[in-house]
Design a protein that fits this description.
- With 211 residues, the chain is mostly helical.
- The protein folds into three domains: 65 residues, 434 Repressor (Amino-terminal Domain) (Orthogonal Bundle), CATH 1.10.260; 68 residues, no CATH class; 68 residues, no CATH class.
- It is 38% helix and 5% strand.
- The chain has seven helices and four strands; from the N terminus they run ααααββββααα.
- It has a two-stranded antiparallel ribbon with strand order 1-2. A two-stranded antiparallel sheet has the order 3-4.
- A hairpin with a 5-residue loop joins strand 1 and strand 2.
- Helix 1 packs parallel to helix 4, helix 2 packs across helix 3 and helix 2 packs across helix 4.
- The chain is elongated.
Amino acid sequence: MSSFDLSGVLRRIRRRADLSQRQLAAVCGLSQSAVAQAESGRRDLPVGALVRAAEQAGLRLALLDAAGREVAGMSPDAVRDRYGRHFPAHLDTHFADEREGRYEHRYDRPRPWFTVDVDRAARDTLRGRLGTPEDHHPVRPGDSPQERRARRQEAARQRRQEEARRSRLAGAGPRVADEFACRCPPACDELDDGNGRPVHSPDCPCGCDLG
C-alpha cells in the first residue's frame, strides 16, 4: 500500500471539483497559503479540513487495510462506563460478573455491567485463544448484572428439572416436582452481588442456584 500523498490528493480534489486553491480554502475554512503549502508538501492539513475538501469533489476519506479493504471506525453505540465514557479502545470489554477478582468493586456504588482487563499478558492469551474482538460489546437489553443472574438461576432450575426427569426415567432417586419456584428472601439479593459463585442468606429456604 502506497503512502498517503497529500499533495496529489489535494490536486485531484481540486481538479474533480473544478476549484482554485483560493476557492477550496474558502469552503474548507483555510487560508489560500495553507492549501498552497499542503500541495507543495510543506505542511499537513487537519483531518476535518481534508474531509470537507473531499466532499467538494464527491469523495470521502476511508481507512484501508493491507489488502485494500475498507475498515470501519469503532462503533459509537458500544457500551460505556458509569460516567458515559467509552472504554479504552485498545482494551477488550467483558461482563463484570465474569471477571471475578479482576477489579475491586466499590460497594458504595452500583455494580458495573462491564469491565476491562488491563493485564496485557492475560489479554494476549485470551486473544490468542479467541481472536481479537472487532469492537466493544454493543448496548443490548438484558445485560444488567441482575438480569444475567436471573438467567443463570433459570438455567440452573432447568438443569435440575432435566436431571430429575432423567432420574425418574432411570427409576433412580426420589420424584422431584417438575415445577419449581424460587423462594429466596430479599436478603439473598443483598448478599449476592453477582460476582462469582452464588451467595444466599443463612436462613434461605431455597438455595436455588447452589446445585
